[in-house]
Amino acid sequence: MTPPSVGRSGHSDHGGFPGRGLAKGLAVTLRTMTRRTVTAQYPDVQPDLPPRSRGVIALLEENCTVCMLCARECPDWCIYIDSHKETLPAVEPNARARTRNVLDRFAIDFSLCMYCGICIEVCPFDALFWSPEFEYAETDIHELTHERDRLREWMWTVPAPPALDASSEEPKEIAAARKSADKLVAAQAAAGRTDSSDVAPQAGTPLQADAATPAATATPADPATQPSGEEPAS
Ligand code: SF4
Ligand code: SF4
Known about the structure:
Blueprint: H1 20-34, E1 56-59, H2 69-73, E2 79-88, E3 98-109, H3 118-122, E4 128-131, E5 145-146, H4 148-153, H5 172-198, E6 230-232
The protein binds iron/sulfur cluster (2 copies).
One iron/sulfur cluster binds at residues 64-70, 81, 123, 125, 127-128.
C-alpha cells in the first residue's frame, strides 16, 4: 500500500496535485493585486460616516431643565452640572411665585466618557444629541473636558433627523405647535375684524365683526408649549 504524499510543510497533500497550496496562494495574491485599494486617505479625504455615528455629544442648552438625570445615570460620572434656583414673581395677583433651575455649568469629560449614549437616551427634554464630529483630539487631557459653550457649538454638526414615514402619526410637539399657531392666526383675524368694526361702516357695507366670537376671546397657550422646568415655589 502506497503512503499518502507529504509536502514540505509536513502536511499531507490529500486529493490534490503537488504545489496546490502554492497555486492557491498565488491566486489570492493576483486577485488582491487587481482589486481597487480600500485604504482610507484620511485626513486628505474625510471619511463618509453613517449619520448615527457616535463622535461627540452636543448640548442644546435651551432644552435643558437641569433635571440631573443624565449626570445621575452616566456610568462614568463624567457629566458635571452646577445650577441654582431662581424665583420668578407671580404673574397674577393671588398666584404663588415660581422657582426654576438656572444652569451654571454643564461639562462632559470626554477622557472618561465611554460613548455608551445613556445620557442621550435618558434625557427627557431632548437636550443631548450625537454628532458624528470626531476631530477633537488634544495633547492636554484637561482640554477633553468640554464646557457648555463648546458642547453648544457641536449642535451645528448634528445631522438632521431622518424624515418620518409617510404613514406615521404627526409628532405631538408639532401637532401642539400647529394648534397654537392656528389659534393665534384665528385670534389675530378676529381682532382685525373687531378693529375694522370700530371704523364707521360705509353705506351698504354689512357689519361682519362680532366681539362675542369665540375665536376673538383670549385663548390660553397650549400646556404642551409651556416652558418646562418651572415649579411652584415651596
Ligand atoms: S455617553 Fe455614557 S459615559 Fe459618556 S457622558 Fe453619556 S452616559 Fe456618560
Ligand atoms: S437629562 Fe437632559 S434636561 Fe436633564 S440635566 Fe441632563 S441634559 Fe439637562
